[in-house]
Fold each of these.
Amino acid sequence: MRRSATLPATSLKFLWWLLIFSPLVLSLIAALFIASILLLTLNANPIEAFSSMLEGAFGTENATAETFVKAIPILLVAIGICIAFRGGVVNIGGEGQMIVGAIAGTAVALSLSQTSGGLIIIASLGTGFLAGALYGGLAGYLKSQFGVNEILSTIMLNQIAVQLMNFLLNGPLLDPAVAGSNNIPKTARIVEAAELPRLSINLFGSAAIFDRTRLHYGLVLALILALIFFVLLWHTVLGYRIRAVGQNERAARYAGINVKRQMILSMFLAGGCAGIAGIVQVLGLQYRLQTDGSPTGFTGNAGFNGIVAALFGGLNPLGAIPASAFFGGLIVGAQKMQRDLGIPASLITATNGLIVIFVVSSQIFAKRLARYQITLSEPPEVEAGRLATPTPKGEVL
Amino acid sequence: MEQVFTASVFAATIRLATPYIFAGLGETFGQRSGVLNLGVEGIMLMGAFFGYYAILVTDSLLLGLLSAILIGLLLGLATAFVSVTLKADQGISGIGFVLFGMGISELLFQKLVGTPRSIDGFSPIYITGLSDIQFLSIGQIFFSHNLLIYVAFALVPISSYVLNHTSLGLMIRAVGQNPEAADAMGVNVARVRYMTVTFGGAMSGLAGASLSIALLQVFQQNLTSGIGFIAVALVYFGGWRPYGLLAGALLFSFVNALQLQISTIGLNIPSEFAVMAPYVITIIALVFASKRTEKPTALTKPFERGE
């Protein structure tokens, strides 16, 4: 009797999750469909293009490692975006926050070069977080105190950060070794001890995987942060407050929550995560801050791709993990597609845009579905008693 | 200092204001009706590419102009569908449109054109009598421009008149200020918003074309480099009024022109700070813009008819 009552409950739960995530899946399918049409108009075979991408992203050990390398900054930014969007602030400033975090963190790493490696890493990660957090917090402050639209202010702050970086790399932070030459502007190299170690995985005593790739411990850091911020958002009072403001600002205010403070805090934490993304690029991959002078020269567009990954991960830091791996794979795979078929990798930028549009557009269906589900499932819920999981209607965006 | 504030700087100020004016005016209508279209940057890039490519292939200025407006119109329609019918978050979906426009314009450019090739776009019109005025270089500053620039400036008073003195303008403002009341008065809120956002899209396409086929006569990857976002911010800056927008656009293009002049004559100011200045000014301007009373109360809020 008990067993038969549990079964429909679990299958109902499964159905529920399927329904929640189906808009995401459908968005992806729709975006890939449009990408296929584009490929066809460019005289390319979509199946060939996608399989070339898949091979480029996961075909070899090195390809998989590169996918994860690209996924690291995307995931770190995405974690922050989850916090901000859940808190009702639209943070488009991932790019700028990454840059500011990288600048401050690199400066600290370079000036501490005489001390031990562990200390340098901790100090520059901390500084990177703080710098990004303050930069993001500034936008939060302007929104809460002066009603400045945070989307516009963060976009402006992105451009300001790029110019600041270009200025510092051409002057105060320029590597003395390349000064006066026509090389790419860059800082001096950080000391070897301050590098994040390369990551190789030994599963069940087998030969090491990824031991000859560029994969580094930034991945572990990103995964730990995803877990920490998941717990923070859903299992602490602080996270509850942040989400309350995001869901209904007025209700949160009536409940006695300091809405302005929560907004600044959401942006502070979001900026901090992006700041870590920036400094991790330096400590784990490039070992110096360098750029080709273009706005995305340093970040590789991770500040924007993080938004896409966060949305695709259901605005949940844990969901952002597979989403980031997916978008990292898209970027790496697109490079192979460009080599194999001559299709410019900018196809991925366009596809990402479509995914964003479709995901936010499909939320109306998710909302309607949720309402429909609640009315529909009311009688069986009473029947199944406490066995049925409470419908997570608050979790639907 | 005389070297800095030359007549050519003022002439450049007028020229460079054009894309801001086109995009900003379109956006003003959209925002006045309660819809924030953040995708302007992406639509501008698409308009810039399609206008450029049409001229490259057909050598027809008219076709270039029309294709830029058409692609803008279509993307505006898509924006309206997403934010009015599907009631999606306007900020985030706008970023989606920016990424889309950025990716597609770059993709098509690389695939169809390859390396930047310049085109014979709009050239300056010589106006007998006016273009030769030497007094205060008036001829050079005001009458040395191409057709699109005059069109942009002419659209400012027209837009202001339409918004403030016609029933259409009243309808747009009502929908942005109090959609429930407008709906009760029998105004079709969705239709008005579709109209303004689609119009805004067409204007963004035109703005992009003004860059690629009139100002620069070339297309390259990410040609607009943030102009679309600044145009959106200028609407706030201008207090949602066309003349305010014009003032903001001129201030901006003046700073841009100065920056070009400074790097030309080699003044000892780091060029990065000159490039940074407009963005800092925008943020400061946004702080003051928030106190404006003209801000449409229903901005970014989808209209739900209470039944």
Amino acid sequence: VSAEPQVQKLESLLARVQHNAALPRPKRAPIAITAIEVHAPTPSFAEDAVTRPLPVVEAAAAHVEIELAPIAPIAPEVEPIVLTPEPVAAKPISGEFAVAAEPPSLELVEISAAEERPEDEEIVDLDDLAVDEEELVAAEEVDSRRAVAAEMADEAPALEVHETPSDVVSLEVQEDEEEPGPPESGRALVAAPHESARVAVAVPAAPEAEALQSIELEEVHAPSVHQDVAPAIEAREEAAEAARAPSVHPEAAPAIELEGTFASALEARAPSVRPEPTPAIEAHEEAVRAPSVRPEPTPVIELEPVRAPSVRPEPELAPEPTVEAIAATPAEEISRAPSERPESAPPTARPEAEALVELVAATALQAPVSEPLAVVEAPPPAAEIVPAPLEPERIVTAVALSAPLAHARPIEGVTVTIEAAVLRPEVTPAEVVAFVGAVRDVHPDTFGALLDAALEL
Amino acid sequence: LHHDKPAGPTHAVTFDLSRGEVHLDLPSGEDHAGSLVVPGDALAALAEAAGMTAAAEFGRALGRRLGARVSAKLDAQVREASIDAVASALAGELAMAGLGTLVVERWGRALVLVLEGGSLGQGAGADALRAASLEAVLSRATGRDVHATSLSRDAQKLRVLVASAATVGRARAWLDEGVSWGDVIARLHGAARAASEEASA
């Protein structure tokens, strides 16, 4: 009897347990797992999942992104449409021409023998008509060729652009292979105007007269210099003539040598006339022909003392070149110099040899000081590849002796650690062993021994 | 690790509020005028204004007091005590003075003390004060003529080389030339090795 209430209690307890077991569990855990699965592939998402659990809404959005990802390749289908300019030669003949080339329409009428026709009416035999059709076809072909030629002529103004003395335009023409017409003719159209334009810019009439006037002024105000420069003045007059027709007198050595002075002076007056690439090309051309047209060293030697004290700001940076060294400068070296100069260099910058000649002439003429100084700047020296100094590597041995306060611990011996991963090159392994061995040899048992070793260092 | 008198703050500082004095637990005869609780940045400013020499002298005076306490804790047997015992005693005294935590390093034969943290402010004068304090602590505790100089300084740590006067002078000269502190230690060992080879030859 006494056990029955307990049995009932147990039964009720069992029923509650079963009831609780039948209750649905919260779905929180699967949601969290889903969120992690979504963001797991991307490291950044994984970090977010660790620090901040994502709600279900964000997980769903991530799913949408993954599902939408394959749609992305659809976009490139539009890209293959590339609009390329249609070749001019492939253009069809215009419709007007086709209509005009149509043979005249003929009216076919049966003519009986008895039927009378007016005298002015032309009667064409069918056999003859066939022949005429062939002729018309041939004529149509001829006309079509003429039409193509006419179209070519209509597009000729595009080529006229290349006649401007701009080097940039000429480069575009040479690179553009899709331009109509044979390539040789295009180059010919470019080359001749370019040369003519360069000569015209280099030797204008008015600045030349000004330069000669400056020479006369120099004769008055600096007689001592003039005495030495007198041959140079005559040579400069020849230079002016040579500048007018440089291809006619290439053997005029002093004139061509001094041409750079005039050209630089003229460029200084009108620097915007000449495009930037032109001086480099001109300098290169002069450098190439320099060995054959170099002047006699004698006048240069006479003028050198005049130049030396006034134009060399830093002797250690720009050592004074000897005449022999200048004359022996190979053409390859001079031609390489412009490419080594910075882009911001003034257009009058020259290689060292030419700069010296310009310097001599400019000093003799007593030109404005600022411009020759800009010219005197020698090209920057060739960049030496200096190996970077090695990081100071240390051969260090550290012995942990103690930690402060409560973290102090006993040490049974000496622990040696080499902290430097890379040793100095000059340190041999034997020295390293000796160094470490010196540490191991000393086993200070007391603080006094340790301090004595340190004081004996 | 067993210390005869483990470092600890028990009775290390006594505040006599009725008289307005602060006393350190020093051996008899060492504490006569009491002590001061001074803000660390104010002391650093004073060291900067006073100059390196005055700051170093102040540090030596402070270090001598601390060295006396270390010696007292180790029963005046500092030289015979183990390295760990001395290191722990030194670190405890410096920490209680607010000079930071101490780590003893040994680079080859060179002895380097590293101070980290502390209440004292930053600055060259403060570092000179710290280095001089370490120098005086060791001198007072061991009875040897010890010299010290700053080897390196970063945001947290100050490395101080402990050596003889001549060695410290060479190290200072190399440091003034811009030689890194690791190279200074290596050079010191190279010079010592060359001297020993000459002596043997």
